[in-house]
Design brief:
Layout lengths: L10 E5 L2 E3 L5 E2 L2 H11 L5 E4 L2 E4 L12 H4 L13 H14 L36 E2 L6 H14 L2 H17 L9 E2 L9 E2 L4 H13 L12 H21 L2 E2 L2 E2 L5 E2 L17 E2 H13 L4 H16 L2 E6 L7 E11 L1 E2 L6 E4 L5 E2 L7 H5 L4 E2 L1 H11 L12
Parallel strand pairs: 1-4
Antiparallel strand pairs: 1-2, 2-3, 4-5, 6-7, 8-11, 9-10, 12-15, 13-14, 14-18, 15-16, 16-17
Helix pairs in contact: 3-4, 4-5, 6-7, 8-9
Length: 402
């Protein structure tokens, strides 16, 4: 996006992560701001970006970290794309026909998308209390459809596909709570799905999507969405980041990591299914931390991300790996490092849980169905810590196992 900066501009106010000029324009790009100010020859006497003051036409970016290796999995739409434009267009138009009236899509619809909606079949197996079919961000839904449709539009300029993407973005914007949180579903389902949902990376996927659109990253580097949409998404993204910072679990004054679900109003970690208790959740917190590292590094964003990194560093278990299939679930391995999936909200003690809603410290005490049917530990944070260390963003307490 280009700024329309006049030489009479005397100062710039930076609001959240967006760069807002007195003209009312918004840009997501520090580089674009700097170049446009130079091009316009504006006499900027002072700029303010949260706690950073910038003087005499000097725009100093608060550099983010390149975490594409950790975030690119949220950008994948290969389950739909074949690379054949004709086939992909047919599939895209089928997907458009299955879009719900509010703009969202349901999950696990690959088989349904093989043909167009017949006007009768259920387009979602979840409904609100008043019978409205629900759209969802669960299991990569809606965000993946948007990406695929945007890619096909770039190649075809099909207006029906463009309109569908815009309708889906309206769903993204409408479904966000005023606090900045995104739920798993919209409209409300009347259960845990209405909470702010980091579980299975749902909210992170939405924020990565918004960030990619704002910055016109492929496949959004076309006319599929205008500046008004990008401005609205930037505002939504700002709120999402602020919600995430406020939702970070704090123990004894120290920020730690996040839960899988949080209350959209109080920010507290909340339970979901019977075996998914309120907790600190490592799997989802890896994606949250990586996303925060990708954003402009205001003092509060950097504090949140580095605090999470410190928690992962402090609570890592070197020389141990998790074997989901058993019978020995936790095995010594000098080259491995792991974290349990769930830790208490109030402290750093790990736990397992079962459909009885109780906590256990011995994995053999939970049912075989839960023991084998859920991932109770993992090593995902190793890549996060490695990247943070190698980029100079965070200093490890000790080297990671090799």
């Amino acid at each position: 996006m280009r700024f329309n900066v006049k030489k009479s501009v005397k100062w710039i106010a930076f609001s959240g992560m967006a760069i807002t000029l007195t003209t009312g324009l918004v840009s997501p790009s520090w580089a674009a701001a700097e170049q446009n100010l130079t091009d316009a020859g504006a006499s900027v006497t002072q700029a303010v970006y949260n706690d950073a003051n910038v003087y005499k036409n000097a725009v100093v970016p608060l550099a983010s970290v390149n975490v594409s290796s950790l975030l690119d999995k949220y950008r994948d739409f290969s389950k739909f794309s074949t690379g054949n434009t004709s086939k992909d267009t047919t599939l895209a138009l089928n997907i458009v026909s299955w879009q719900l009236p509010h703009g969202g899509f349901f999950k696990a619809m690959e088989k349904n998308y093989k043909s167009k909606w017949d006007g009768k079949a259920a387009r979602s197996t979840w409904k609100s209390k008043d019978g409205v079919e629900l759209g969802t961000f669960d299991n990569e839904a809606t965000t993946t459809e948007i990406r695929f449709l945007a890619d096909v539009y770039k190649k075809t300029k099909n207006k029906d596909i463009k309109n569908s993407v815009q309708k889906a973005i309206d769903f993204v914007l409408t479904s966000q709570y005023s606090s900045g949180a995104w739920p798993q579903v919209y409209p409300k389902r009347g259960n845990y799905s209405d909470a702010a949902t980091y579980n299975d990376d749902a909210m992170v996927r939405v924020m990565v999507l918004a960030d990619d659109i704002v910055n016109k990253r492929q496949p959004f580097d076309s006319d599929i969405l205008d500046n008004t949409y990008r401005s609205r998404l930037q505002q939504a993204l700002n709120k999402g980041v602020q919600y995430t910072i406020k939702a970070q679990i704090v123990n004894n004054g120290t920020p730690t990591i996040w839960g899988a679900q949080h209350d959209p109003v109080t920010y507290e970690s909340v339970p979901a299914r019977a075996f998914e208790l309120a907790s600190k959740t490592t799997t989802e917190s890896v994606g949250i931390t990586a996303f925060l590292m990708s954003q402009p590094q205001t003092a509060e964003v950097k504090k949140a991300a580095q605090s999470a990194l410190k928690w992962f560093d402090t609570n890592r278990i070197d020389g141990m790996k998790y074997n989901r299939q058993g019978p020995e679930f936790f095995q010594k391995d000098a080259s491995s490092v792991m974290w349990y999936r769930f830790y208490n909200v109030e402290d750093n003690k790990y736990f397992f849980s079962d459909r009885d809603g109780k906590k256990y410290t011995d994995i053999m005490k939970i049912s075989e169905e839960r023991r084998l049917g859920y991932a109770w530990a993992g090593s995902q944070a190793k890549s996060l810590l490695k990247l943070a260390s190698e980029s100079g963003y965070y200093k490890l307490s000790k080297p990671l196992p090799q």
